[in-house]
What does this fold into?
Amino acid sequence: MAFVMKWPSEASPGVVIFTHKERRFFERPSSALGTLIKRATQEFLFGMHWGHYAADVVPAAGIDFHLAGPGTLHFAAGHSAPRIALCSRNFAPVCFAPDGRTKFWDVMMVARPLRLKHIDQFFQVWKKVLAARPSSRALLVCPEIPNPNPAHEYVEMVTDYKASFTESERKNITLLLTSSQLYPFPLEQETIAFLYNSSRFFALFSEQEGESRVISEALLCGLPVIVRHDLRGGGRDYLTEQNSFQFHNLDEAAKGILALLDGRMSRSVDVEAVAQALREDNSSAVLRRELAEIFAAKGFDLNGPIDLIGLNRKLPGHYVSLPPEIRMDKTDDIRDVVGFKLFMHFLAARGNAAVTALSPASRLVRFGDRARAAVASAVATSRRLLKTAVTGRSAP
It folds into this structure.
């Protein structure tokens, strides 16, 4: 997402946060695009948020700093760049907290139906748990993905669910599969917090996670976490021997879950300590301090308003605010080079006093009007060129 966190004020630059998915625009840009980027960096500092696990990364030119958890981003040998060890999972809303309600489910999982999430393996483990402890209850919250790709998405999940568990057993493993029309966030955050607080433990069988907001949310609600011991990425950044059970194989996972449910193994979460690191009411001040240090290193003061609201959605591009012509369908990630150029022009336009006086929302509306006009012009030009190529005559 091209998220304007701060607009320039006096001698203090603005701040724009891009996602790792927009990194491609900074790699070997054309001469024209490079000029636009250089012009924008005279008034803005550019940050890049990493929500996906990445190793051997060579920092892109034009990016002033990176936002990434310790386990999420690894620079290539011999390379480094300014880094703030915060990402969207560090800004969970205050609704993610223990509320003392009675637990209904023993184990809860929140996962998209991706093959790397290994939901099928969780089914295998839960089958063993039910065989030894028939009263155990599990909840799987799964947002259905639009237009799934069988190579990457677990498209046979419902079929496997029905084949793995008898009708009687399905009373003890609830599959909450939400409509793809509501993707990517079909449930309100308060509802998810309610479900966490209605569960005793949280499980995630992924082999790789970027930052894993769901693990952070579960910890904030007081749920010890069950994961693979070799989970790649940032999922284990805040896990300890005290607040998690990390298994080596599926048999160990089943035995460990049974031991947790029966009280033969004890795990607990220091919610207050976790909240200091992972909740927005604490992390926003940390981010402000970190930004001030980056500004100072470049000879600037950090002055003017900073948008620190809803960063758990804005940083990864899940808060949609850009015009639809330049962004992806479900996120605010910029779609292509044309859209990126338009966004650079948008940043440059803030030097106009009339534009600067507008609110950020109004700026985007004004930008949307310019973007629509530019896209319409580009489409019309393409049609004229195509007609000329086919007929040999210039189109009117």
Observations:
- The CA atoms of residues 55 and 74 lie 5 Å apart.
- Residues 3-91+279-386 form one domain.
- The chain has twelve helices and 15 strands.
